[in-house]
Amino acid sequence: MVNAQSASGETDLQLIGHLTRQTYALVLAGGRGSRLKQLTDWRSKPAVPFGGKFRIIDFTLSNCVNSGIRRIGVATQYKAQSLIRHLQRGWSFLDGRFDEYIDIMPAQQQIDESKWYQGTADAVFQNLDMIRRARPEYVVILSGDHIYKMDYGRMLAEHVSTRSDLTIACLDVPIKEASGFGVMSIDETGRVTGFQEKPENPEPMPGHPDRALASMGIYIFNAHFLYEQLLRDETDPRSSHDFGKDIIPYCVPRYHLQSHNFADSSVGEAGKPPYWRDVGTIDAYWEANIDLTHVIPELNLYDEDWPIWTAQEQLPPTKFVFDDNDRRGIAVDSLTAGGSVISGATVRRTMLFSRVRVNSYSVVEDSVILPGVEIGRDCTIRRAIIDRGTEIPPGTEIGVDPVADRLRFTVTENGVILVTPEMLGQEVHSIR
After folding, report:
1. Of 12-16, 226-230, 293-297, 358-362, the least confident
2. Parallel, antiparallel, or unpaired: how do β-strands 417-419 and 410-411 relate?
């Protein structure tokens, strides 16, 4: 194991490089994400498109690759075909000749033929043979369904320097939102002294009664310590085999668990607060996408030093056609992906994914349009999410009449409208 206090004269960058090469990352990507409603009827949450050309899981995987962790497992379960295809097509650039790879780990009932993954810890336990085969010193456990940019190498260096058994990434959140997280208590050195999974009455941070310290579900384990805890937990008949509910509460009073402040490893612009989003609701998903259309978005996708990697389809550029007074193809304060055509239509403050066609005399505002959507002539669409492959008939109005919208579509409390092909009586034959 590399000593973080080495006197060999290595730079911090060299030291982190040593550590990341000894690390295996396991991304838990099996969840449905039921709060996303019909967006996850045919795909898992990590496979949901985001940001014009990406999938949600691309952010976690890009963090791994950019951090120098290039031995990665992805545990899948719920409706995983779309996700598996994306991983095969978009992440095959890792080179096994240099011990770089992504292991796709579908739920296989490896331990018990009557059980799929029972919890987050069980998903790791059922793949212990794959992890052990990599012979890592450290194992990073990650979620595949959040949007953020983070250098796991910095967190790994802190894990080693504090000589902890387990390090948990954390950020402070409003107390009213904390019941959706694991809530941590720490001492003055950052050591974890208490942990409650999704408590009804979260404990506030000292001196900040309106904030709580929340776990991000990002864990770094010493590999042998992880093996020991998973084997112990598997034999406990009272356990639900979950990190937040079982493993961490058991370890807090017995071992050295250290907190890691997300701000110390977040990748972003100096002076700006760290960016992390759980896009697990329709409203949150819509807001995070629409934020990217702002003049200065909170998330910088143009950072060449920390790129977000994904599958690159070979598509033509976006095309804008017609320039008559009543029929002008324009997009303002919007993002448009390759293969799209704005034909005599107006698009404002909108995210257009690939191969979207917006036909003449239509107006699309404040919306998220997923790949392969066709919007017919004379349509008005406002504050909507249109799912992949939907064909909007000519003359359709969405976001104009709230009563009519609720009769046909899913509408959130904040008035965001989700439209899928099935809601319009259409069939989609492609994988979403």
Report:
1. 12-16
2. antiparallel
Does the CA dihedral 70-75-78-81 come out positive or negative? positive
- pLDDT tens-place string over residues 66-102: 999 999 999 998 889 999 999 999 999 998 889 999 9
Amino acid at 126: Q
Q: Output phi, psi for 77, to 5 deg.
A: -155, -75
- CB-CB contact of 90 with 42 (8 Å): no
Mean pLDDT of the chain: 93
Query: How many other C-beta atoms lie within 10 A of the C-beta of residue 112?
Result: 10
The values of phi and psi at residue 306, to 5°, are -140, 70
Please state, in angstroms and rounded to a whole number, the distance separating the CA atoms of residues 213 and 177.
11
Task: Give the span between the Cα atoms of 167 and 165, in whole angstroms.
Answer: 7
Report the candidate in 313, 161, 154 with the shortest Cα–Cα distance to residue 218.
154
Which one-letter DSSP state was computed for residue 245? I
% helix, strand, coil for the chain, step of 5: 25, 25, 45
Provide DSSP, 142-189.
EESS-EE-B-HHHHHHHHHHTT-SEEEEEEEEEGGGGGGSEEEEE-TT
- pLDDT, tens digit (0-9, with 9 covering 90-100), for 4-60: 444 444 558 888 989 999 999 999 998 888 999 999 999 999 999 999 999 999 999
Neighbours of 358 (CB within 10 A): 30
Residue showing tokens 């960058």: 13
CA dist 402 and 383 (Å) reads 11
- Tell me the per-residue pLDDT of 146-191, one tens digit each, with 9 for 90 and over: 999 999 999 999 999 999 999 999 999 999 999 999 999 999 999 9
**What's the rounded mean pLDDT across residues 294-306?**
94
Query: What is the mean pLDDT of the segment spanning 267-271?
Result: 89
What CA–CA distance (Å, rounded) separates 67 from 164?
Answer: 20
Residue whose token pair is 């770094």: 220
Residues 6+ apart with CB under 8 A from 262: 150, 169, 170, 171, 216, 274, 276
